[in-house]
Amino acid sequence: LFASECTFFFGSQTLDQLPPPGVAEIAFAGRSNVGKSSLINAMTGRNRLARASSEPGRTKQLNFFNLGDRLTLVDMPGYGFAKAAKAVKEDWQNMMFTYLRGRTVLQRVLLLLDARIELKPSDRDVMELLDKAAVVFQVVLTKCDALKPGRLDAKRREVEAEMARHPAAYPHLVLTSSETGMGIDTLRAEMARLVEM
Ligand code: GTP
Ligand code: MG
């Protein structure tokens, strides 16, 4: 699946301009700057497919990518600490929440957490929203290259304890780094399995 071509095909700034539902979608969600766009690039092997930036708030719309006509990857604006006007942030969040709750073709959400940063109330809010909407989410730790092995182990246990509290959490946590490629093949294999189901 990930050997096929991946292309950008739609950008939505408002919910009334979503692309018509087609093949299964996987959405990449997480706080601003967590590494959503970088992970899409790492998984598709394309450096500049999704635009990544050290400045939080880089992704400003829902970006839809077509992967071999079999899967759609959706890069979302981040929640949390984006440096944008409050009203703009609220618009993003409303769009994100409504999309996550109501999109019929949404197969799974990859919920990204930065391995270096503690869980925030906004992360738990999103998990609760997904519980309520019964949308399966898989937690992905990002930037694992930035932690020493011992700290990474502690982080894994902390996050797994949180996942155990959420009925919609997929039980397998994936540790990744878009810099070193850690965990990328695992994620690709899991997404490919979803498409085959
Ligand atoms: P928004 O679009 O603003 O919500 O951010 P995002 O979640 O798409 O994050 P993005 O992919 O733009 O990455 C944010 C910053 O984190 C960039 O400076 C990346 O280079 C850095 N980054 C992303 N992945 C990794 C990683 O695996 N390891 C390290 N060390 N840095 C990373
Ligand atoms: Mg982004």
Automatic annotation (TrEMBL):
A single BP term in Gene Ontology: division septum assembly
InterPro entries in the cross-refs: G_ENGB_dom (IPR030393), GTP-bd (IPR006073), GTP-bd_ribosome_bio_YsxC (IPR019987), P-loop_NTPase (IPR027417)
NCBIfam families given in the database record: GTPase_YsxC
A Pfam family per the record: MMR_HSR1
Database matches in SUPFAM superfamilies: P-loop containing nucleoside triphosphate hydrolases
Domain EngB-type G: 22-197
Gene3D superfamilies: P-loop containing nucleotide triphosphate hydrolases (3.40.50.300)
Cofactor: Mg(2+)
GO CC term (a single one): cytosol
Family membership: Belongs to the TRAFAC class TrmE-Era-EngA-EngB-Septin-like GTPase superfamily. EngB GTPase family.
Organism (species): Brytella acorum
Alphabetized UniProt keyword annotations: Cell cycle, Cell division, GTP-binding, Magnesium, Metal-binding, Nucleotide-binding, Septation
Protein purpose: Necessary for normal cell division and for the maintenance of normal septation.
MF term (GO), any: GTP binding
Protein name: Probable GTP-binding protein EngB
